[in-house]
Write a structure and sequence with these properties.
5-stranded mixed sheet, 3 domains, 38% helix
């Protein structure tokens, strides 16, 4: 009997999710259209849409054109029924944004901070920034992107030793009194590309985050690959040589060659690591030479192993140095002679500097669209 009740509730939750996603992806639809699409009775659809209306996530709008009988009411998502907040906690910065259910960004706050070394300051800063973005609209929750694998809510002590023993999710939920989800930054960047970027409808692609660290969000058959313990996609710690000490303690990691902190090893002392942003000739030479060549080695391995349809690059170097992308494509063309992936499938993310923070917020939407009852637990 208990199993039967559980199965019924689970089926209803699945149908709620299916109906909500159908309304979200449409410009507007009717109950009759939903009934035909899903093969459910009119009464079942009415019950499901009534519950979604009660949750506040959809609304009745105008009358549709009549096909002979009484014109039906159009159902649409109410994108402003609540807000979601996304946090990009990088190694040296924090970016926080709020957006609605259509992914439209309302506000963005940014702060420079050595988060990897100062966990208490990072937690306090995130708390303050999230509270600053609170409005009269209910909050669905907060998503947090971190430059580390996430296992049971904790970060990798090898990559971020100062965070050892800190349960980031539980700590922020206690401070904010909000639902909090935490994920790897590259994985959440991939999620943002899948929902809002150039990879809508693409089932197999790779999202590359290039910043202080280097990570890969691997999407196969429409799902982000996490691996056995959440460590899939740690591209920055793939060894490509025997030289270069990485912050993880190993030698030869990709990050030790192309991470932002690694740029200085290629540049004269009088050129700072920020000068390359201003098209410094020496920096441009490094970015289009050593950096592009090192990354091409790692990407060639990914292409041969995963056969992605597309590779999307995100971060300061690809977004601010177009010469780098051309150089990377050229380097890739000499290493993947038999690959069916076109070189022009190597692209720069269209989501801009807030791409990862937007992915963090999208993590909340993915959870809520899979379980719409979470909308009943929003914080006003």
């Amino acid at each position: 009997m208990t199993d039967s009740i559980y199965d019924t509730r689970q089926l209803r939750q699945q149908n709620l999710s299916r109906v909500l996603k159908a309304i979200w992806t449409s410009e507007g639809t009717s109950r009759a259209d939903l009934s035909r699409h899903f093969g459910l009775s009119r009464s079942s659809i009415s019950s499901l849409t009534e519950q979604l209306t009660t949750l506040g996530v959809i609304e009745e709008t105008h009358l549709a054109a009549s096909s002979g009988g009484r014109p039906p009411r159009v159902l649409q998502l109410d994108p402003d029924c609540c807000r979601v907040i996304g946090v990009d906690m990088g190694a040296s910065h924090i970016a926080v944004l709020s957006m609605n259910l259509r992914g439209e960004i309302e506000q963005v706050l940014e702060s420079d901070l050595a988060c990897g070394e100062q966990p208490e300051e990072a937690l306090s800063t995130i708390q303050t920034m999230v509270e600053t973005l609170r409005t009269s609209k209910p909050l669905l929750g907060v998503g947090v992107a971190v430059p580390s694998p996430v296992v049971d809510g904790e970060l990798s002590a090898r990559i971020l030793p100062a965070w050892k023993g800190i349960h980031l999710q539980a700590e922020l939920e206690s401070r904010l009194s909000l639902r909090v989800f935490v994920g790897n930054d590259a994985n959440l960047g991939a999620l943002a590309e899948q929902w809002w970027g150039t990879c809508k409808g693409v089932q197999d692609f790779v999202f590359i985050k290039m910043a202080t660290g280097v990570g890969a969000g691997l999407v196969q058959h429409g799902k982000v690959l996490l691996g056995d313990a959440g460590y899939a996609g740690e591209l920055g710690h793939v060894p490509i040589s025997n030289e270069g000490l990485c912050r993880c303690g190993m030698y030869g990691c990709l990050e030790a060659h192309i991470g932002l902190n690694a740029l200085q090893q290629y540049l004269p002392p009088q050129i700072s690591t920020s000068d390359w942003l201003n098209n410094d000739p020496q920096s441009t030479k490094v970015v289009t030479g050593s950096i592009a060549d090192a990354l091409s080695v790692a990407l060639s391995i990914l292409v041969n192993l995963l056969n992605p349809h597309k590779i999307v690059l995100w971060g300061p170097i690809p977004q601010r140095a177009p010469q780098f992308v051309d150089a990377l494509r050229q380097a890739m063309s000499t290493k993947n002679l038999w690959s069916p992936m076109r070189i022009d499938a190597l692209q720069v993310s269209s989501l801009g500097e807030q791409g990862v923070a937007k992915g963090a917020a999208t993590l909340l939407l993915e959870e809520a669209f899979s379980n719409p009852l979470l909308f009943a637990e929003m914080e006003g």
